[in-house]
Automatic annotation (TrEMBL):
Organism, scientific name: Tropicibacter oceani
Assigned keywords, A-Z: Lyase
Family recorded in the similarity comment: Belongs to the DapA family.
Pfam family, one: DHDPS
CDD domains reported in the protein's UniProt record: DHDPS-like (cd00408)
Documented EC number(s): 4.1.3.3, 4.2.1.41, 4.3.3.7
Name used for this protein in its record: Dihydrodipicolinate synthase family protein
Any GO MF annotation of the entry: 4-hydroxy-tetrahydrodipicolinate synthase activity
Length: 305
């Protein structure tokens, strides 16, 4: 990438057939749909991609299919998180060799009793950076249970060559983003938020330059970022208000299931199956999701029809 990545970098869902097997053709269709949604990049194999429910073989298949299908039309970010540094290095090298533009990784964790200290975290990211030439995005999320205070993130940004993008989705993300940008300066190349853009306006006020949402409504959320960065703050606020009911319903009621359900309804994929022990949405939650999606006339809701 010649220019810093900004805008919207949504996470792609991993589609399964109704019997739970990997839907390879669905993976290809998801990539094409997301490009038609006008995304600035696509992130694969993230938590919202159910990466923790994929075998190593399936993970490699999803990466290969996705990168082949995108074929350079937009940057692809490959998530490579694992507790073992050696596996993360292997995944990162494979992603770069296959054409990934960036990798994303969480700090190493395996429950609250297996979290390395700050030195181990720095060494983990340093080892991965030494193995590749593409940028690293750190995912700072409550899911890991790992504390990544601003001084530690700034230390790594200054010390580790490829460590330059940040997905901050902790409580009070805006305050953390503002502190990170102030302390890190030019080493903070890409400050992003997540959580389906539920705090996006506050995070943009704090200096965020983009967001990593799901693939549910990128074409509606992207203008919030572009208008804000262009100085049109009132227009950004108006667009955020338009999107907020669906953002809130996805974030609080649906989780990773929302994009799959809307994409199935729109003919992008054939099933919205999620792997056990995850459970499908209630019909009540699904009905509200589809009603809100229809009000916004989402691309995913009609793409395959």
């Amino acid at each position: 990438m010649k220019q810093p990545l900004t805008g919207i970098l949504p996470v792609a869902p991993t589609p399964f057939h109704a019997d739970g097997s990997l839907d390879q053709e669905g993976c290809r269709r998801v990539m094409d749909c997301m490009i038609d949604q006008g995304v600035d990049a696509i992130c694969i194999l993230a938590n919202y991609s159910e990466q923790f429910l994929l075998s190593d073989e399936e993970r490699a298949t999803v990466m290969r299919i996705s990168l082949e299908q995108v074929a350079g039309r937009v940057p692809v970010i490959v998530t490579v998180s694992h507790f073992y540094t050696g596996i993360v290095i292997e995944r990162a090298r494979a992603a770069q060799a296959m054409g990934a533009s960036m990798i994303m990784m969480m700090p190493p964790y395996h429950g609250v009793g297996l979290v390395p200290g700050p030195d181990g975290i720095v060494e983990h990211f340093q080892a991965v950076s030494d193995a590749i030439d593409i940028p690293i995005m750190v995912q700072d999320a409550p899911l890991s249970g790992v504390s990544l205070p601003v001084p530690l993130l700034v230390q790594m940004a200054k010390q580790i060559e490829n460590f330059s993008y940040f997905k901050i989705e902790t409580p009070f993300a805006a305050d953390k983003l503002a502190a990170l940008i102030e302390a890190g300066g030019k080493d903070i190349v890409g400050p992003f938020d997540g959580e389906e853009a539920v705090t996006l306006l506050a995070d943009l006020d704090a200096g965020a330059t983009g967001t990593m949402t799901s693939g549910l409504q990128p074409e509606k959320i992207r203008p919030i970022v572009t208008q804000y960065l262009a100085g049109n703050h009132d227009a950004a606020l108006a667009q955020w208000k338009l999107c907020l009911p669906l953002i809130n319903h996805e974030n609080r009621q649906c989780g990773l299931r929302a994009t799959k359900t809307v994409m199935m309804e729109g003919g992008v994929i054939g099933s919205d199956h999620v792997r056990h022990p995850l459970k499908p949405m209630s019909q009540r939650t699904k009905d509200r999701l589809l009603s809100l999606a229809r009000e916004l006339d989402l691309i995913a809701l009609k793409w395959g029809k």
